[in-house]
Amino acid sequence: MSQQGTRHSTLGTDAVVLVTGAAGVIGRVVVPYLAGAGMRVVAVDRSPFASPRAELVLVGDVRDRAFVERSLRPFDRPVDAVVHLAAIPAPGQLPEDETLAQNVQGAYLVLDGAGRAGVRFAVAASSVAAYGYAWAGRDMSPPYVPIDEEQPSVTIDSYGLSKAVTEQVGAFATRRWGMPTVLLRFPFVGDGDRLAAHLDRIRRDVSANRRELWSWLDTRDAANAVHTALTSGLTGHHVFNVAAPDTSTTVPTAELLARFHPGTDVRSPLGEFDSMLDSSAARRLLGFETRHGWRDGPVLS
Fold first, then answer.
1. Which residues lie closer than 8 Å to 4 by C-beta, 6 or more apart?
2. What CATH topology corresponds to 2-286?
3. pTM (2 decimals)?
4. Tens digits of residue pLDDT in 105-160
5. Are β-strands 81-84 and 121-127 bridged in parallel, bridged antiparallel, or unpaired?
6. Which family does it belong to (predicted)?
7. The dihedral sign for the CA sequence 117, 128, 245, 282
8. Is 33 a catalytic residue?
9. CB of 228 within 8 A of CB of 289?
């Protein structure tokens, strides 16, 4: 899923990158990852936090226009790139209207503000919830698997809608300002204890994850996806699935489909534990590859 833009940019290792949501599950791994790659990171979150690898830490709300404008110019010039990760991370934490309003307003102020300021590139977190199955509140099945980025959204929950609209905000910023935007559709993301607890829940009840289609991604691979997007040199607006190549269960994929999604069309062959999400576009256009799995040893391997 892509559209053309006009502003081409390849970021160097000394690029200044603003990371919003820097204290979140993905952000706290992205910041040291980018710093380790030689980038100068400005880390932003709405509550006080420690981020030792960041060059600058700013505390404020991305729904505050003035704060966003200051954050985009921390050294008296625009940052080179933005990584927008700040959002309400799941449904149920706030009333539905507030989840939608906060996520969309934050995305608009950051991405439109970045384009307006002359930022060269933007990456933002979307979610597989944008397809509509994960948090629907009732069982829904995709029309086909592997699910690629062309499959239409059927969201009936405010969180999934907020992510679908965030993708449109990215497209808007590209059309309006010519700033390239990459939206990454993340599944469940975790490592260490967080991932271990998630895998254990699925081991005890495989049906509990049926709406998320047993998709997952190690947090370190999520950080790698952000970095590959930043350094891709892509123009235009793009939406990519970025998921582990396998599922989060030892139940074969064919059995999962037969038990929980029997009406779903299998459009191309799936291996024994292959993911139902198609991340081939990210591999092809970003050079994205996962490096961390859970099947052959401890989760932290």
1. 235, 236
2. Rossmann fold (3.40.50)
3. 0.95
4. 999 999 999 999 999 999 999 999 999 999 999 999 999 999 999 999 999 999 99
5. parallel
6. Belongs to the NAD(P)-dependent epimerase/dehydratase family.
7. negative
8. no
9. no
